[in-house]
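## tool: complex_structure
## caller: assistant
## args:
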Amino acid sequence: MAARELGREDGVDARRVALSPEFPTRLEQLAARTRARRAREDLGLRRGTGRGVEFEGHRPYRAGEDLRDLDWELLARTDQPFVRVRRAELGEHWAIVLDTSGSMGLGRPPKLQRAAEVALAVGFVALGLGVASELVVHGEGGAVQVRPLRSRADFARWIELVGRLAADGRRPVQELLASPRLARARRVIVIGDLLDLQPAQVLSLVRPGKRVATLRLLAPHELAPELSEGVEWLDPETGARVEARLDERTVDAYGRSLEATLAAWRDAFARRGQLARVASSAEEFETLAGSLFE
Amino acid sequence: MITFEAPLALGLLALPLVVAWLAARRQRAPEETTGTLELWRNVASQAVSPVERRTRPPLALWLLVAALVAGVLALSGPKFGPAGGAVPWRLVVDRSPSMYFEMNGKTRLAAALEELAQRIGKPEGEWLAVSGRETCAIVIGEFPTEWGRAPAGIWEAPDWAAFDAPGTIWITDGIGASAPVVAGLVASGGAPVPGVVAVDAQGRWSFDGRELVREEAPATEVPRVAIDARLREGPLGRALEAWAKARGFALPEERDGARLVVELEDSGESVSGEVSGPGFRAPARARAVRPFDGVPQRRLVDLGGECVARATFGRIRVGFEQLGPLEGDDAAFALAWAREFDAWTLAEGIPLGERQGAGEARWQAPRDPPEPARFPRERAWLAAIATLLSLSALVARRV
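## result:
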């Protein structure tokens, strides 16, 4: 196993987020698939319970909005651009909490890279669904920043913000969860490895009518370390080290220990009817983001 | 003190260091960052058998590094002992009384040492204090200054013939007409020294520089001997009392100023057996006695393989806890001990042979002065150790 230096991956600064040129296209495709699925669900919901993301009325079209939401019939009749307004857009507001702690710089690709892509994807899909959202994150100086997303123009600023993020030092997610902006969100999505959190710290946000979802991203070598003669594990946040021989018995013991930890996390969320996902940072962001909408 | 024939070779000690450093680098596990360090720590702490990786370098490496160190040290030629590349002399010192007579403001011994220093440079090596054939003390390095003071009792001149060997120098005041064959000789020489030769209750014998002179004059002070109170009532105490009476010695309780002290040692290993001599025998239980430090001495009684009585000038040390009852002739027992009391009682006066002149100062160079060994003992040992370690490293590597 080759030595891996924190923050350096194949000549690229792994602590920072670098979006690929295909990312916008893939984002559009994801949003389209989610809208289509949501539309099918809406039909089903209407037939079944009469609840869901129901059509509420119209409002004037704003520059930059998705033209697919434009009510073409109304435009034809009134010569005025209106978009359909659904219940979700009226009342729903999401908060996306993005973990940028030092350990998020680990993995191939780095966990922060994947987490940021997922956060952007969730925000973009929410925008497509007419849901306003806010990105809650530690900024460059370490202060908690909240960046709203209500339009395409806002999304461009999100991308700009994400491009400046870095996995650096100790930035506890708990600081982000303490943000008062989370109180008014109907849905809180926490994305990161969340290694410094206990389930109760996230579940304390749950209120009637308010949902909390977590996506825990772990690097492949954290989920399933390879057998090897030995590795000196280094915690990038504390500098602590443990040297271990990675034989089958040790890796099995680690796997059981990790599974027990993650199972306890999932069980705690399940008992409160909330969503807790655990995934590898090697998975594609579309899959990861999609899992949050299931 | 340790010195090196080729100190520059010590620079090669960097070689094993470099080998160890390179090996340690190879041994070091690759570093990997993880956010789950706590889990790894828990796994390590809960494991029945060690999980943490063994980072010690393998035995073969240790052996190889040790072999290299030993090899480099062997090349550098270490020597323990005299510094400055001094020739390792064996210096036999005469400590008989005449060596402490003064001549020109210094003792004959000091004069001999000065002469020696002029001949061979600062004398260093193995110093032997010898009385007769007995080597009483050995000191490595420089001349021990405490030997510059006269010892208690009458030391004999060394039995020189026993020390006629290469690399040896005799240090004396004179040895008459004889001369060493191989060894070197430095003799201070010295004129006759008048003075008291022997004292008894009625007078004394003196040497006037040419012959013995008898002077009748009763001693003003009664000489004393002493014995441990625990021995006084036993057969040894009674023998000492009879001997002291015959010789005109007082036998008071205190031991200060006594010319002979018979002391009891009761801390050695306990042994039992039978003490016997011509015409007597006696059962005994005794403790082993320690030897005297650095002085001529003799074992007087052995019991059960241990020495339970030994003597030096002015002191007899015994370990008898129980002695007797005597079988045979009591007088034979007393006579046997009286010989020892006579032999070891500090005499007033110096033997005539010591007072007579020692002749002229003399220097005789040793026939074969010792050269520093081309391959000294330390170097040979280190080379052997290096070879052994190298072989062990090979074996360990294969295992």
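## assistant note: The CA atoms of residues 135 and 156 of chain A lie 13 Å apart. Chain A has ten helices and twelve strands. Handing back to user.
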